[in-house]
Amino acid sequence: MSRNTESFSFGAGLGDSDRSLLPRQDSLTPISTKQKCLNAQCAAEYSVNEVLAGCRTCGELLDVVYQWPTSFPTNYWQLIEHRALTKGARAGAGAFPASDSALDFSGVWRFRDLLPFYGDPRHIVTIGEGRTNLQRADALAGKIGLSTNNGGHLYLQYEGFNPSGSFKDNGMAAAFTHAKMVNAGRVACASTGNTSAALAVYGALTGMKCYVFIGDGKIAYGKLSQALEYGATTLQIAGDFDACLARVREIAENRPEVGIYLMNSVNPFRLEGQKTIMFRVLEGLDWQIPDWIVVPGGNLGNCSAFGKAFIELKALGIIDRVPRLAVIQAQGSRTLDRMVNELGVTWQAATCGSNVCCRGCTRKAPEAQLCFSGIYDTQKVKDEYLRMNQNHERAKTVATAIEINRPVNLPKALRALHAMNGVVRSVSDEEIVEHKALVGRLGFGCEPASGASVAGARLLIQEGVIRPDERVACILTGHVLKDPDVTVGYHTGMQMKANAVDLSSCTPTGRVSNPPIKVEDEIESILHAMGVGR
Ligand code: F0G
Q: What is the pLDDT of residue 218?
């Protein structure tokens, strides 16, 4: 057991008389909160009330950093268990300002003490996001090579249960909260689909004007339909995701008169919300630490948020070791894989004496923010992007969610890999759709990008990097209904031309395909097709 168990007991909810045992709010409140540039050679700091897509001095990414109280209560999780008992009907999700029970009901905000940038809780936006769960998947574990008789287990963190059907709602709840703090009127994002769907839902509920920039023909219909249905102004740009992001950033940063608040994951407040996916994985395991977290990588916001979550939990003394991280990309958009495994780009934690930061670091809560500063070989990264430009390299994968060649969170992903002793791999489109179908066949279900995490876990088991007796948590990032074209295309062998999604780069072997059976309108033929006729 790796959780710090001192003065802690699990079990049923607390009665009124026991509530006095819960941690007091003043023991959880940070002494200060700011935005800070992760570049150790710059380390510029900004107020949390500023709206920035990057450091004004050096252009690098910003973190939200907290100066925590010296000792965080070791029975913190008891408070979380207590909050999780809130009933949905009483919570009034979507109301503004949110009631305490609405905050407790949210799978993001019941952990609010671990993302306390909001200052005044009346700014918090919630629509009941993050009530997702961790499922043990024994049949699937066996199929991918884990030995369940030997302590090996596969867990699926099913983020498709979020209100908009993907993990993005975790981040949107936090970013919309910051947007409320700074009185934003117009919000925008570039998206491969899920960010735009989540943005549109939160925009509809908060009444903020929403703009989404999507690559022409680069979005699954389930996701496009959400942006349209929830009333976001949807701009189909003649370009890919990387082009869309460059444009929306340009407008947010260089056209202040338009007043756009940027909702992409360069926004550090988004990532604060996405940390809670890891808190829920731990919660689902009764606060035991899994051996591996496996997550698909696109713009690399999610894996970055996971790294930050574990650095902070460790510094706060809530856990005493961190799991390893595996980031899985599609072979057609494997920039991080190439940077790490071929070009040797790594993160160097500048301020950590042992230079293994979170893994070996003994730094405690008040100085946790120091763990976020570091450097990496920026010249190598620039040269690689230049080479990609010169060769006109564009991302291409059936998993359109992760069809991204210039992941903006690359530095933070390098930091997460460093802190969590991580690895990066990429898998083919065939492996992606095959594992997506396998997840579905065994009763769970996910969209193509999420299938990459299970395909990646199998690859790492085959390579001997993940041992068969280890406990592996794969993140299923989006719902099975998000991309019906790929699913129907896989099962029927048809290329779904109605949508511009291109399946030509993937030739499913169809090991678990389940095509519909065409049959005459005649009873004996139908029984025969059902496999029950004479
Ligand atoms: N899985 C799904 C279903 C996604 O939608 C995304 C990203 C990822 C994985 C990758 O996550 O970017 O944090 O590494 N979708 C973004 C979007 C880019 O616009 O919806 P990441």
A: 77
